[in-house]
Amino acid sequence: MKTIGLIGGMSWESTAVYYRRINEEIRRMRGGLASAEIAMRSLDFTTVVALQKADRWEDAGNLLGHAAASLNRAGAACVLICTNTMHLVSKPVADMAGVPLICIIEETAKALKADGRKRPLLLATRYTMEHGFYAERMAKLGIEIVTPDAEDRQIIHDVIFDELCQGKILDTSREKYLGIIEKMKSRGIDSVILGCTEISMLVDPDKLGIAGYDSTIIHADAAVRFALANDLEIAA
User: What is the DSSP letter of 166?
Assistant: First the structure.
């Protein structure tokens, strides 16, 4: 089993989901008392958020890049950035990591393409929805990203930072999200991406009335496949 490196803490609420999912899948696939070999660097989210708000993305990339390099030194064979937003700086992080970086955008795109989805609605932080990096990378893979209007983008963003990242799960916010999804169906979307690693804490991707894709689970499962690649090759 290869060691999985996690850059977490952004927020730790979703990092806990990664840890649980990865270990559940390792146990499911290996059985018994099996658990994952994981090295984690959990960052202080207040520092990361301050860099985001100040538009200091180069500094953010260096911060995460050093975290990735430390995971390499700790024995990690791959690195995951446990958040969608910070994939805005995935290139410098990958350059500094020294081991493969498993990209949440690419893995989510693979899942969409496998199901023939071409026009998903993206629910995420404002940075992810508005900075263009996510839509551009998806477009290169043949997928056209659709985002809500500005007012709804702000609602989605505020719920993430003011509630989900602080462990608050409110029924009123769930209804807001479901209402936004329902409204966007008239724009010809064929699926929904839960493009923030905390959103699945609020809404179930299987209960949206349209195909839902939880980027957190997709990303975590990709890490498991990487870690167990030798096992899977032998089984095949």
Answer: G
Tell me the catalytic residues: 83, 196
**How buried is 178 (Cβ within 10 angstroms: 0-12 exposed, 13-18 middle, 19+ buried)?**
middle
Indicate if the alpha-carbon torsion angle 221, 116, 197, 131 is positive or negative. Answer: positive
Residues 127-178 pLDDT 10s: 999 999 999 999 999 999 999 999 999 999 999 999 999 999 999 999 999 9
Q: How far apart, in whole angstroms, are the C-alpha atoms of residue 77 and residue 66? A: 16
Specify the DSSP element, H or E, that contains 213.
strand 212-214
How far out from the chain centre does Cα 55 lie?
20
Torsion angle of the four alpha carbons 176, 182, 184, 190, in this order, in degrees rounded to the nearest 10: 130
Asked if 9 contacts 42 with a C-beta cutoff of 8 angstroms, the reply is: yes
d(Cα 175, Cα 151) in Å, to the nearest integer?
A: 16
pLDDT in tens, 175-219: 999 999 999 999 999 999 999 999 999 999 999 999 999 999 999
Q: Which residues contact 44 (CB under 8 A, 6 or more apart)?
A: 9
Q: Which sign, positive or negative, has the C-alpha torsion 93, 16, 83, 223?
A: positive
Looking at residue 133, its amino acid is F
* DSSP for 4-63, written as a single string: EEEEE-TTHHHHHHHHHHHHHHHHHHH-TT----EEEEE--HHHHHHHHHTT-HHHHHHH
Distance, in Å, from the CA atom of 204 to the CA atom of 212, rounded to the nearest integer, reads 8
pTM of the model: 0.94
